[in-house]
Design a protein that fits this description.
Elements (H helix, E strand, L loop, with lengths): L1 H37 L9 E5 L10 H9 L6 E6 L5 E5 L9 E6 L5 H18 L4 E7 L1 H10 L9 E8 L8 H4 L7 E9 L10 H13 L3 E9 L1 H4 L8 H12 L1
Parallel strand pairs: 1-4, 1-5, 2-4, 5-6, 6-7, 7-8
Antiparallel strand pairs: 2-3
Helix pairs in contact: 1-8, 3-4
Length: 259
């Protein structure tokens, strides 16, 4: 019994040490990644930024990111708009978008129906334009949310819509050649493409880095102002669903949109 107790004590201590080292490593990684953010001053652009999440997403996809952007003083207005399966909108936070770089986190109840989500996104942006007088927006899409944003921008609209100024696409590749659709994008659009690469892998364990680079190359070939950023690291920051919980990605998006 004494030997067994000692063995378990050693195992417990070893596990505790590993957890402490992992926690310390994560804290250091976050602090180093956040330095550029904390040293930056963000300008007031007058543009509303709309965050479009991916397949099977929820409020936690972009919720922490928009709150971090507010804490970092890039914005002073954060809103979450829940869109029900039948298109009803529930607003939490600011209902008028006249502050410093307002941020809108969109959450779709039916987050596995891309065609419906594109229609709902179109309706939401039309509502922002007509009812809230939002004339300019940025679109930030993760994974399928990037595809939704792209489909929205390349589809003709019969109703009034805001102008898209900047488009952030990350953790996304298009499996069909988007060349024809890209021609519908305005030449004034600025694009940031973000990809992840887990050490030793070909991408972020869900999307290939080659596909992300191919997408950026398509935008550039069409004459669009395009920046490519690739984060390479451990799954903690480079995995498909952790890229939006990564201070280095935060810094790239903040710099692209607000400096």
């Amino acid at each position: 019994m004494a030997k067994s107790a000692k063995r378990w004590r050693r195992v417990s201590i070893s596990v505790l040490v590993i957890l402490l080292l992992a926690s310390g490593g994560y804290w250091l990684w976050w602090q180093l990644g956040s330095r550029a953010i904390h040293q930056q001053t963000y300008r007031h652009t007058g543009i509303v930024t709309v965050f479009v999440p991916g397949y099977g997403s929820n409020s936690l996809t972009f919720g922490p990111m928009v709150q971090r952007f507010k804490q970092d003083k890039a914005s002073d207005q954060v809103t979450t708009i829940h869109v029900s399966a039948d298109g009803k909108r529930t607003i939490t936070g600011a209902d008028r978008y006249n502050g410093k770089n307002p941020l809108i986190n969109v959450v779709f109840a039916d987050a596995k129906s891309p065609q419906k989500e594109v229609r709902q996104l179109t309706g939401l942006l039309h509502w922002l334009r007509v009812q809230r007088h939002v004339t300019r927006v940025n679109l930030v899409g993760h994974s399928m949310g990037s595809n939704l944003s792209f489909n929205y921008m390349t589809t003709p609209h019969a109703n009034l819509q805001p102008q898209v100024i900047n488009y952030v696409s990350f953790a996304s590749e298009f499996y069909r050649d988007p060349t024809t659709q890209i021609r519908a994008l305005p030449k004034t659009l600025h694009i940031l493409v973000i990809g992840g690469q887990v050490f030793g892998a070909k991408g972020d364990w869900a999307v290939s880095l080659a596909g992300v680079k191919r997408l950026a190359a398509k935008f550039k070939a069409a004459g669009l102002s395009t920046t490519l950023f690739v984060y390479t690291g451990t799954p903690v920051g480079a995995y498909h669903s952790t890229l939006h919980q990564n201070p280095y990605v935060d810094a790239e998006i903040l710099h692209f949109l607000f400096t």
